[in-house]
Recover the amino acids of this structure.
């Protein structure tokens, strides 16, 4: 059974090769790739390397892609391997009909037609009429060697020369139109050539086959840049210009590895200029905003590709769109980094005015995704009013909620809100490594007569210990108090305990077993011993069913430390309950109201 090539290509892109191989052998990261002991011959030292689209064993020489791995390792036929992988990828195997077979044959013929078209454009590039195109490229600083590498060429005048050339090779007008080389007329008939008087940029698939063209007008005319339309070979959202160059990146060992960075830029000339300067990992979307399909292509090449945008307002908007597009498909293993160029500059112009080393310096100062999201969100504020701050905070929470990986979403929420609080509600930083109380005790110890005085900071420290200890005793309340917990200005030992709590997976079960496994049980025992938890009669509570009581106690002690913040938390809980009056929001509101009432009446034993 024959399968449509576009279906097979999508299947290969959807299934991470290392995830399939890891079902058979243990795989570990090796730079941007993976390695393992070869599953096809016995070895103790890994020589089996897994790249984005293929594997290769340097011991026994076995080589292939995800489909051939399933066939060779599991003894499946080609059809069986495709069916199994399609099920894993959530793809429906296309029905093999006579029409489907005809379409596959047509697709094969289209590849040959596009290759013939490129041959024609290359021949036109050598004519006298193409001098304007050659001069344009040379004046842009593109060398003859780079021109040949990218197959840059000239469309001709569009007066039927291409059509005659292809017809001489027995391609029909219908097929030439299906390849995206002709204009469609109002009556549905095929008209003249789509590209004329344009410098031509061949667009290739991963294997280097020409599947479409981009053209830049020379002289007057619109649009300035024109891409092939969607065809059976070409889908803009699933292709990146320069994608076929990435295979050469893997084998290079430059003096500075940053030359091998996978870079996403905005245009053809940016890719070409960077390649000529030594950055062979540059790619560009084709006239559209970056899509999730294109992000998947990038992550197959690098776990942390770097997105470069022009330094103007449009570039900032494109950066924000790309960042938001990535959120639902982020994982702890794959993310994005960003660089911004000076206003009015793009990679092409920047390289021309400076040099490769200057661009390397920009890459060295790349920003991670969370920082970019925060900075761009703050830039969108029209002023620093309470309304705008509330809107910003809501947006930051919304950003984290778009991430499907729960642990990663939790980290993003914490990091984004930490930045928010640090900027708009700076802490007092009263604690530096050790509490003020401990420092005072050291000072007092040097005096011959010590009067037993209970310091205010000592009381605060004990209350902080109680807050942390309550969470270790009843971790199920962490999600409802997480934001307030992050707002606390804690000494070093309690700050470390907070990080442990925020990292604790709630579905793990026994938190004390978890603490032993990560080697932090002594730290927590120290904190709980300083908390005087006997005041809370903890043995009288069922930590599973009485979490409401623990939540109330937590907010009570929080209120003793930060009454103003507790009042704000009550207001937020009221707004959340009005918006969604379910049992969970009601419980949260009641716990905070009861705690606020107790603090205001001076109650201590809750």
């Amino acid at each position: 059974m024959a399968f449509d090539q576009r279906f097979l290509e999508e299947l290969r892109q959807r299934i991470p090769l290392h995830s399939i191989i890891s079902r058979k052998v243990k795989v570990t990261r090796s730079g941007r790739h993976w390695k393992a002991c070869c599953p096809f011959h016995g070895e103790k030292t890994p020589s089996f390397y897994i790249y984005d689209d293929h594997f290769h064993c340097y011991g026994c020489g076995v080589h292939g892609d995800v489909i051939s791995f399933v066939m060779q390792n599991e003894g499946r036929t080609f059809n069986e391997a495709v069916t199994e992988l399609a099920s894993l990828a959530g793809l429906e195997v296309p029905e093999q009909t006579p029409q489907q077979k005809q379409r596959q044959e047509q697709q094969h013929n289209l590849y040959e037609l596009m290759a013939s078209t490129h041959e024609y454009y290359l021949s036109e590039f050598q004519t006298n009429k193409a001098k304007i195109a050659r001069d344009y490229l040379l004046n842009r600083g593109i060398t003859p060697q780079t021109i040949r590498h990218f197959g840059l060429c000239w469309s001709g005048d569009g007066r039927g020369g291409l059509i005659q050339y292809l017809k001489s090779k027995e391609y029909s007008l219908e097929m030439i139109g299906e390849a995206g080389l002709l204009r469609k007329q109002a009556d549905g008939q095929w008209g003249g050539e789509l590209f004329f008087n344009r410098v031509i940029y061949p667009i290739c698939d991963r294997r280097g086959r020409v599947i479409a063209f981009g053209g830049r007008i020379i002289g007057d005319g619109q649009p300035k840049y024109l891409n092939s339309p969607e065809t059976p070979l070409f889908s803009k959202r699933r292709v990146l210009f320069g994608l076929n160059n990435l295979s050469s990146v893997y084998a290079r060992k430059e003096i500075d590895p940053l030359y091998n960075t996978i870079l996403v830029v905005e245009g053809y000339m940016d890719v070409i200029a960077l390649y000529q300067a030594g950055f062979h990992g540059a790619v560009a979307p084709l006239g559209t905003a970056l899509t999730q399909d294109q992000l998947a292509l990038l992550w197959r090449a690098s776990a942390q590709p770097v997105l470069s945008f022009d330094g103007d307002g449009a570039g900032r908007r494109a950066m924000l769109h790309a960042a938001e597009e990535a959120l639902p498909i982020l994982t702890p293993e794959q993310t994005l980094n960003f660089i911004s160029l000076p206003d009015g500059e793009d990679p092409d112009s920047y390289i021309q005015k400076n040099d490769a080393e200057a661009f390397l310096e920009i890459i060295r100062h790349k920003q991670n995704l969370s920082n970019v999201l925060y900075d761009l969100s703050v830039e969108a504020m029209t002023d620093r009013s309470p309304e705008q701050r509330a809107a910003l905070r809501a947006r930051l929470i919304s950003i984290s909620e778009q991430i499907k990986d729960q642990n990663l979403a939790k980290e993003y929420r914490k990091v984004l809100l930490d930045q928010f609080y640090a900027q708009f509600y700076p802490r007092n930083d009263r604690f530096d490594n050790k509490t003020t109380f401990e420092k005072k005790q050291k000072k007092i110890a040097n005096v011959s007569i010590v009067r037993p005085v209970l310091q205010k900071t000592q009381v605060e420290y004990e209350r902080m210990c109680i807050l942390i200890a309550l969470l270790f005793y009843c971790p199920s309340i962490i999600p409802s108090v997480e934001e307030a917990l992050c707002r606390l200005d804690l000494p070093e030992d309690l700050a470390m305990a907070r990080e442990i709590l925020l990292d604790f997976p709630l579905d793990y079960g026994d938190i004390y077993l978890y603490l032993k496994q990560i080697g932090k049980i002594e730290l927590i025992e120290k904190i709980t011993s300083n908390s005087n938890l006997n005041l809370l009669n903890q043995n009288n509570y069922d930590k599973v069913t009485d979490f409401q009581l623990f939540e109330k106690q937590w907010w009570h002690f929080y209120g003793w430390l930060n009454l103003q913040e507790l009042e704000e938390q009550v207001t937020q809980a009221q707004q959340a309950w009005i918006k969604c009056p379910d049992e969970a929001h009601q419980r949260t509101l009641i716990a905070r109201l009861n705690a606020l009432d107790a603090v205001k009446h001076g109650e201590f034993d809750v």
In short: The two ends are 73 Å apart (CA to CA).
